[in-house]
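Sequence in, structure out.
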Amino acid sequence: MAETRKETVKLQGTARYWQMELETADETEKDWRERGRNVVSRYRDERDADTYGAGLYKQFNILWSNTETMKGALFARMPKADVRRRYNDNNPITRQVAIVLERALEYGNEVYSADKPIKAAIEDYLLPGRGVVWVVYEPIFVKETVQMESIDDDGNMVMIDKEEERIADQRCYFQYVNWEDYRESPAKRPEDVYWKARRHLLTRDELIEKGFKNARDIPLNWSPEPTEGYQEEYSEIFSRAEVWEIWDKYTRKRFFISKGYNEVLAEDEDPYELENFFPCPDSLVAIRTNETSIPIPEFTLYQDQADELDRITTRISNLIEGLKRRGVYDASVPELSHLADAGDNDFVPSENFSQLAAKGGLQQVFQQEDIAPIAQVLAGLYQQRNQVLDTIYQITGISDLIRGSTKASETATAQQLKAQFGSMRMRKKQSEIAEYIRDLFRLKAEIIAEHYEPETLAAMTALVITPEMMQIMRDDKLRRYSIDIESDATVFTNEEEEKRTRIEFLSSFGSYLERAVGIATKSPDLTPLAFQALRFLMGAWKVGRNFEDVIDRTEATLLQQAQMMKQAGRQPTEAERIAAQKMQTEMAKEQLKQQGKLADIQARERASGNKVSTEAQSSRARAEAKKELALLESDMKIAEKMNEEAKDELQR
């Protein structure tokens, strides 16, 4: 008896082993799939034709109503990829890598209508309880004939033609997987799932086109379910091969098998080379418990109330059928038979009017059925139906404000509280959808970074792809350390909120930018700190990324100017120049005063014989000193005047 997986595969064969795995998964989820089909049938309101009509069973399709409401609340538009540098550093290469991946993701969203598979998966999430989207990568190869050098038998160099394959195009897109076509290994935790599979229904031509081994021998073992008017020969025309694409995390291989066929159709080694191997995130599950990964359809939580709603609706319909004006009349007055058919302002002639009057008039010869009790019962049924609806809304978390049905008598505060309560209960589901789409973006970005050629990326993004950028994208660790991939909100865009955000950004950004430039001008050494703080402030707004280039260039310019001033020597400002000139004048004035005093002392000490000559010389020295002092005082007054004018100019 085989005890290990390898032993089982060796004993049973690879194809048979995977058929056993699929059969186990089918049996494990059998009850859930049956419940899921019933829920979808209820949503589609699929009933037999003979159940329609007066007096028969009626339905109030609350499931359809709630599902459509939830669709709009959970997914209003396709979110945009938000790729940023993981750390807000000044690294132009990682910034370009982030821009390339973001543009590539946005290109795929627009070209391949990414919202359609998301919407389909959300419908499965809301009805049977599991939604799945697959990320598909398709390289398009073409064959070309190229000339190559070769050596012939005589040892001569010759040119030969050789056929080679090259990648002509690369595609990566989301693909919806129907909940009935998806299987996974039974597990309690999503991280314990070790294989995932999806079903393909392929024609014989498609089997051959995909290059499966022994494609003509693969049985066409699937046909549509017979319907009214279905003929037996249609089975052969519409038959398909039920092929399962299985991704095995244990061996990191992809297998293609067909049920009932004991050979593997194809086997690939790690097709996408993804870090977590699987080409899809953990499934969207409506209600999950810790004991099993089998989903629970949300409708089952209020199906009893939905059945009660249908019973009340059926009773209301039946009572309305009986709510008619009916009565009896005296057969001796034949004119009364025409009274019921009379129109407005029509009077029916009577041959024995006196006899009718003698009997007390119409009140005595005609009596109608009392329908007041029926009307009272109907009023009670309508009230009861509203109470059941309120119960369902409480179970599902759909508040009346979100559904757009508020009372005019309610205050604005009451309506706001309802909206907050509804949004709180809805927030968990919205978060699950947003995280699922984010994970899809991350898978797609990983495939693009790992497999796309530089030429393809350049054509797709209109950017120059450098070897340094390709090195970061090709390296799992470098890419993971350098960039982060998120998605914006999936709910309705609030235009007023967006306008308010832009105004707030421009106000904060403009105010701090002015201060940052001022700091850089006065204290060049603080320029890096000021601009790093500016980047930190700007990171709070996504729109701020549009200004990254401008900020980088501005910082570089200011740093360059500061370096040039430092090398050339700092030039004094006008105010500093005037102050220095005033100080020099004061010093010169004081020096001249001291020189005048020294001349007087020297003159008195000279010999009396030289008295006349000495007094003349001393007089001339004092006169020259006074003259220079007067000139300096004049210069100082001019300097003071210029200083006052400079201060006034600076103040203005």
